[in-house]
Amino acid sequence: MTVLVTYATHSGATLTLAETIAETLTAAGVATEVVDVNEGPDPSRYDAVVLGTGVRIDAAEKPATNWAKTHREQLSSRPMAFFTCSGSAADPAKGGRQKAADAFLEMLGFSPVAVKNFPGWVIMDKIPVHELLLLKSMRTPTGDFRDLDAVRDWAQELAPLLRKN
User: Fold this and answer.
1) Which end of the chain has fewer beta carbons closer than 10 Å to its terminal beta carbon, N or C?
2) Entry pTM
3) What is the pLDDT of residues 54-98, one digit of tens each?
4) Is 147 helix (H, G, I), strand (E, B) or coil?
5) Residue 106, φ and ψ in degrees, nearest 5
6) What are the structural domains, with CATH classification, of the chain?
7) Cβ atoms < 10 Å from Cβ of 93
8) What share of the chain is helix, strand, coil (3-state, %, to 5)?
9) Cα torsion for 51, 55, 60, 63, to the nearest 10°?
C-alpha cells in the first residue's frame, strides 16, 4: 500500500505538515510519497490520498482546488483525507471550523475519511504584499502556531482509515 501525501502551499507551512504526516504514516508501516500538487501527481497510482492546502483569505489554495476537481473521480474511489493549514485556525472563536475547508468539501462532493484544520503560521515576511495590508488592517496575530504533535496524532489516527478499501 502506498499513500500519496500531496499539498498546496504558499509560504511553506503546509509542506511541513505534509512531511510530518508522511513521516508518521511511514513509522506506522504505511509507505508514502510526498508530492507538491503543482507537480500534478496522478492519484490513481496510489491506494489512498492525503491532500493538504494552505488557506489564504478564507479560501483553499487554487492549485489544490483545481487538482481535486480534475481528479475527483479517482479521489472518490479510494480512501482520502483532507487537511488545511491556516494562521486563522488558531483562533479559538472559530471552534476548529474553517470556512475554506467547508467550501472545499462542498465542492468535492463526497466525504473524506478524515478532515482536520491545523493552525499554520502568519509570518509577515512570507506573506505577499497585497495580503499584508489586509492582515495588518485586521490586526491579525503573527507567529508560528503549528502544533506538530497534533499533526502526528492525527496521522496516527489516519493510518487505519487509509488502509480500508
Assistant:
1) C
2) 0.85
3) 887 778 899 999 999 999 999 999 999 999 988 665 555 555 566
4) coil
5) -65, -40
6) 2-163 (3.40.50.360)
7) 6
8) 50, 25, 25
9) -70
